């Protein structure tokens, strides 16, 4: 099973209309590709592996969080007084963002846009 064959299969699934992500996810999960992906995810999420890296990762995440919060505060302070356009309906705006970023309307699910 090569990356190329998986990519070909995923491209095929992406072209199915209408585009129902939940069904396509289940469909992919029931194939050999999906099964091996599930095994891989299980191994990667093993608690012993996670626990061994918890201390190191918690420090890294904490430092990145501090840096991000400092950046957000600087941006908020520099944008004082600016008027931002607020959309009328969050749901409609989210649908619009999803359609733009996925390149097609999604049916039956509200997933975040990938960008």
UniProtKB/TrEMBL annotation:
Pfam families xrefs: Mononeg_mRNAcap (PF14318)
InterPro entries: Mononeg_mRNAcap
Domain (Mononegavirales mRNA-capping) ranges: 89-114
Name of this chain's protein: Mononegavirales mRNA-capping domain-containing protein
Lineage: Eukaryota, Metazoa, Spiralia, Lophotrochozoa, Mesozoa
């Amino acid at each position: 099973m090569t990356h190329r064959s998986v990519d070909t299969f995923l491209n095929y699934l992406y072209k199915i209309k209408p585009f129902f992500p939940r069904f396509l996810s289940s469909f992919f999960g029931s194939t050999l590709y999906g099964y091996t992906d599930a095994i891989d995810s299980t191994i990667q999420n093993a608690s012993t592996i996670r626990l061994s890296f918890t201390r190191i990762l918690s420090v890294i995440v904490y430092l990145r969080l501090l840096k991000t919060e400092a950046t957000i505060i600087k941006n908020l302070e520099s944008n004082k007084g600016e008027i931002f356009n607020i959309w009328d309906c969050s749901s409609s705006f989210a649908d619009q963002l999803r359609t733009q970023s996925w390149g097609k309307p999604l049916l039956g699910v509200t997933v975040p846009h990938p960008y």
